[in-house]
């Protein structure tokens, strides 16, 4: 697997009429707290409520008419499923989506809103993915992987391209990481435009497969706990991990408590409703886990806002 800036530029040209070029917003609150120039790239304002629309559009826009006639299938914790349903509706094909049984209701409603047919299967993303791959073989549908695909990664990388075109002098970019597609895409785009920028993945302690594997330099087995950051929950694949070794500079783990606190902090200080998967980067900053950023330009990728309302209210009522 390889990914180049040219792939990301091509993806941008394919999807530009179907996405929102989301804003970069400066955080006065974090400047007061950290003396750092922190900016948010607000993909919670993206079509379908998350960055996943970019990757799904990038992939589905390349399918042949014959492939589209058979439809597409995917597995997802929710956001990618919504994105695939949205992209399928724009490119005249049908979407079958397999989601874990514990997927947030807000995400299930989003899938249905865009016309995706839902199959709930398994307790984890990994179980849902295996089932979806089997269904793809049985039905002839094209499997749209959430992160283990160069064309999908290129779509996600358009976030980094947009951000660096708007502000080329970022010193550090913090990216939520589950399977590594977004992280690799952003790192590829950012370093093509500024080789000195540091790109760091951030993950929950409850689902540390990427972090532990990246730090070990190889795939390792980990133990999983329940996580508020369900969008970056689950296992990883070898190819994205190997790709990251050539372009990603570091990895940070944050606690579940710090993620919940960061969600509440963003709602109070910026009036943004963000999901746990988005909040990991804010958590890392609020817990002072990102070193040497005083007077530096820092970009936080806010990946989505599709948080279940009952979970959000629970978060807001905690940490008084």
UniProtKB/TrEMBL annotation:
Residues 16-304 form the Tryptophan synthase beta chain-like PALP domain. It is an enzyme of class 4 (lyase). One of its GO terms (biological process) is L-threonine catabolic process. PROSITE patterns: DEHYDRATASE_SER_THR. Gene3D superfamilies: 3.40.50.1100. The keyword Lyase applies. PANTHER family: L-THREONINE DEHYDRATASE CATABOLIC TDCB, THREONINE DEHYDRATASE, MITOCHONDRIAL-RELATED. Keywords: Lyase, Pyridoxal phosphate. Catalyzes the anaerobic formation of alpha-ketobutyrate and ammonia from threonine in a two-step reaction. The first step involved a dehydration of threonine and a production of enamine intermediates (aminocrotonate), which tautomerizes to its imine form (iminobutyrate). Both intermediates are unstable and short-lived. The second step is the nonenzymatic hydrolysis of the enamine/imine intermediates to form 2-ketobutyrate and free ammonia. In the low water environment of the cell, the second step is accelerated by RidA. It holds the Pfam family PALP. Belongs to the serine/threonine dehydratase family. This is threonine ammonia-lyase. InterPro entries: Ser/Thr_Dehydratase, Ser/Thr_deHydtase_PyrdxlP-BS, TrpB-like_PALP, TrpB-like_PALP_sf.
């Amino acid at each position: 697997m390889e990914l180049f800036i040219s792939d990301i530029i091509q993806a941008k040209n394919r999807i530009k009429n179907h996405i929102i070029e989301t804003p970069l917003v400066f955080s006065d609150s974090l400047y007061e707290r950290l003396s750092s120039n922190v900016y948010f790239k607000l993909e919670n304002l993206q079509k379908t409520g998350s960055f996943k629309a970019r990757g799904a559009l990038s992939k589905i826009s390349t399918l042949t008419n014959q492939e589209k006639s058979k439809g597409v299938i995917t597995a997802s914790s929710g956001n990618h499923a919504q994105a695939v349903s949205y992209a399928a509706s724009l490119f005249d094909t049908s979407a079958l989506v397999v989601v874990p049984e514990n997927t947030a209701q807000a995400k299930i409603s989003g899938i249905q809103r865009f016309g995706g047919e839902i199959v709930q299967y398994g307790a984890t993303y990994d179980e849902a993915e295996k089932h979806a791959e089997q269904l793809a073989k049985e039905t002839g549908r094209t499997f749209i992987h959430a992160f283990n695909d160069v064309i999908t990664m290129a779509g996600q990388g358009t976030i980094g391209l947009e951000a660096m075109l708007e502000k080329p002098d970022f010193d550090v970019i913090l990216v939520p990481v589950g399977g590594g597609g977004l992280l690799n895409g952003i790192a590829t785009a950012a370093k093509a435009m500024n080789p000195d920028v540091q790109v760091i993945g951030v993950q929950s302690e409850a689902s540390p497969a990427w972090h532990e594997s990246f730090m070990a330099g190889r795939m390792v087995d980990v133990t999983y706990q329940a996580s508020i950051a369900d969008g970056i929950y689950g296992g990883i694949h070898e190819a994205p991990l190997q790709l990251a070794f050539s372009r990603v500079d570091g990895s940070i783990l944050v606690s579940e408590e710090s993620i919940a606190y960061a969600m509440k902090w963003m709602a109070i200080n910026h009036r943004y409703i963000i999901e746990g998967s988005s909040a990991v980067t804010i958590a890392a900053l609020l817990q002072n886990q990102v070193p040497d950023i005083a007077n530096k330009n820092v970009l936080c990728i806010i990946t989505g806002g599709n948080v279940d309302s009952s979970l959000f209210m629970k978060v807001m009522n905690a940490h008084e």
